[in-house]
Amino acid sequence: MGQQGIEEGRGAFVEGAWYIIANARAVGKRPVTVERFGTRIVLFRDGRGALVAARARCPHRGADLGLGRVVDGAIECPYHGFRFSADGRCVAMPCEGRAAVAGGAGAALALTRFEVREHRGLVWLWWGDRPGEGAADRRGEGAAELPPVPWFDGLPPDERHAHTACMEWDVPFARAMEGMLDLHHLPFAHRPWVFGVGAQLDPYDVRVEGDVLHAEGVLRKDDGEPWDGRGGWKFAMEVRFPGVIRLSLGGYTMGVAGCAPIDAGRTLIVGRYYMPVPVIGRALAWLGLWLEFRLIQPGDQRMLESTEPRDPDLGGARCVRADAGILAWHKMRRARLKEQRAEAGRRLPLVEA
Q: Where is the Rieske domain (predicted)?
């Protein structure tokens, strides 16, 4: 599937979930347009500083609202000056005059808005209908509230000793998630930068609890003996389906990553390192993430971009025990997509104005 809008792309991505779509620091006084899920989304802050997400296409003539500005908490189109409040209403039509707006002329120009939250310095977007929305509509009832933004126990309570950065991969979302869940590539794909890490993944345990995937294991040298409980490179991974990941490496470094589809063939990677060290923790987190994005992740990106076929085809792959985390994630994805296909009359993932 090519770069399509949400109307054409419905069902192509896992719905009914929160995705990390940007670093909150990227959204300041001026609006910002990003492409996610095959559509252009404008992010801006209202008069209270709260985040707003809407389709970037101006309802008037299609200009990119991200090129405009925010005036008194409303986003102003750069082309003709039409303004839209945080609830999506058109509140100014300069060419028609104030009387026209007061008379309801702008009612047909409401923005298509999306559910968005700002949490822990990240921008989270809900992709899909509210839980039970389709069935509730058929019964004439209101849909359920959205679930809370997912987060992880055991992380520092704030971001004082953290650093966040973003990059884009020219690979489909499912391929990117395979890369995130793959640990046994480490001593080979990153041979120049990772020293002393064994190639045998043993022990390795994967379990799924609802929408949470847990994977724990040890990469160690193959000595022909059972693991003694001490040696090797330990890791623990927790995935909040479909694409929010917590990773602990060696029992010390703690990181969070979020993957979100840009379109059917590209994926946004948001990475964060935590280094809970007094005074220099933030600097260490910045250095660690800089090295990660400069040295480690390009290797993953190169491997995934060269993998055939471009979209995952588990039927053509010969997976082994060490791929259990990847297989478990794909099983969750297949089940969710099957549910989506079974739902008829799905609506756009928007907030009514």
A: 18-125
Cβ atoms within 10 A of the Cβ of 46, count?
A: 16
Mean pLDDT of 159-165: 95
Which range (9-23, 67-81, 176-190) has the least confidence?
Answer: 9-23
Sign of the C-alpha dihedral computed for residues 53, 179, 291 and 150 taken in this order: positive
CB contact at 8 A, 257 and 270: yes
Residue 228 phi, psi (nearest 5): -90, 0
Q: Evaluate if pTM is beyond 0.85.
A: yes
Contact present, 227 and 220 (Cβ < 8 Å): yes
Tokens of 152: 């992880």
What gap in Å lies between CA 176 and CA 172, rounded to an integer? Answer: 6
Specify whether the CB–CB gap between 203 and 217 falls below 8 A. Answer: yes
Pick the closest to residue 264 from 326, 313, 314, 311 (CA basis).
Answer: 311
Q: How far apart are CA 346 and CA 57, in angstroms?
A: 22
Non-local (6+) Cβ contacts of 299 within 8 A are: 189, 190
Q: Which domains, from first to last, does the chain contain?
A: 17-127 (2.102.10.10), 162-337 (3.90.380.10)
Placement of tokens 């707006």 in the chain: 101
- pLDDT digits over 101-139, tens only? 888 888 889 999 999 999 999 999 999 887 766 555 444
